[in-house]
Amino acid sequence: MRPVLLVAGALTALFFLSLALGAGRLGTGSDAVWLLAVSRLPRTAAAMLAGAGLAVAGVIMQMLARNRFVEPATVGTGQAAGLGLVAVALLAPGAPLWFRMLVAMASALLATAGFLALVRRLPFRDPLLVPLTGIVYGGILAAVTGFIAYENDLLQYIDIWMNGEFSGVMLGRYEFLWLAGAATLVAYAFANRFTIAGMGEEMSLSLGLSYGQVMALGLAIVSVVTAVTVVTVGMLPFVGLVVPNIASQLRGDHLRRSLPLLASAGAGLVLTCDILGRIIWYPYEIPVGTILGVIGAAVFIWMLQGRRADAG
Amino acid sequence: MIRCQNLTFSAGGKRILDAVTADAPPGRITALVGPNGAGKSTLLGLMGRLKEPERGQVMLGAEDAAGIPRPIFARRLTALRQATRITPRLTVCDLVGFGRYPHNPGHLTKEDQRIVEACMTDMALDDLADRQIDTLSGGQQQRALIAMVLAQETEILLLDEPLNNLDLSHARRVMNNLSARSRAGRTIVTVLHDLTIAARFADHVVALKDGRVHAEGSPDEVFTPEVLRELYGAEVEVHRINGKPVILPI
Questions:
Q1: How high is the pLDDT of residue B63?
Q2: Topology versus the membrane, per the UniProt entry (chain B) (predicted)?
């Protein structure tokens, strides 16, 4: 069976499972409809949108950096979004959500552009040096954020978005995530350009592509997806790393062909982890970020060992 | 016709090209030769607008190349760099298909597909069409990249050491194919290290040394023991077989 059909089928099953699961019992009649509309449906949609968006943001990041082992959560994009949020909390405490979102996007964009500029200047072509640089770079941003937050009694505030979870998702409090869905569609529309950009600047120029414009568009997509995810549900690690690498194995990197599979697999992974988080310790919950951390890290280590040779 | 006028380029404080003026005649194969570090690849990069010159310009006929919008430029000229590394996992067929991008950025049409298949056949890639690039040998990858730039169907082709990693049979295939294309009116500029191959296939030779044009002319004019001694600092014998120079190191 074609992988995309398999994933689509699994995704449908997960969707209904997610709707059926929760601490409260899903009765019948208008109460059930209310519960579905206000809590379960938004939560399910949020998990799917964030998962699809992060998987796509991950593959675009990998094309722009020309390295398979980077993703927004490990190269400072997510950390910078958090830094932006802390800055708003200090400088403009009462700012509305859209303003916080905008600042998070802007700081994510700046930091990601900074990372790519840094990577271009790396003296060595060792593919593993790129993700390492990203981890150090992201670590510095996180440390600065942590320090500022500590000094200003905001540690609890940053805790909320450091570890993603969906238990707070309700109607009226997750809608920004549809922007991540929209960004995914934009990425699909420009898929060929991102694939060509993945072949490098000179190849892009030789094919008549404005490399700078593709870079800018890619950065915008990565930043929007990361910022809306961090602001609404918190950081979800490894989705952007693991999903594109597995999709690449199955389907190659012709993005016009692999993006549908990639987006559905991302949605499926996050939804699965959220469902696991609701089941394992029922009726309590384990944050999806924790579950993703465990599963993602295991898969990542396996990837590093098995595919070291063609990392770059 | 592609004409370089006074091209000057520096990198890292070092002058790579110094006022290079050279021609590549239309419908001919021009070979760029010279010792390592002479500036051949840089010159090719400037001709293909992959880099910006510090001074000077590249003319396509009477037009300044820098004034042509990139998407249109890519339909007229293509440049293949040496040792190009393709990071994304693509099949040979997909990679060659991207050669059609300047003409058609969306799905490939029937006509595009016909061109892609013809170019794969030209490079003897039919059996490898569905293989992933990263599973191929260096020579097979090189042929796939050449097929890709051929599929771009430009009037001008710039190729940096296209014979890298190719065995004799495939090197011959590539050069014969380029010859056929030049006879059909396309202008080809290629960096070549094998001077006997350059003498056999090129109509025009530009020899670079230390960022300057050391000699320019027909293979007969450039490939003499005296010029080659000055160019490479190496002693060679030049013989003639079927009227073409054959260069043997002593």
A1: 93
A2: Peripheral membrane protein
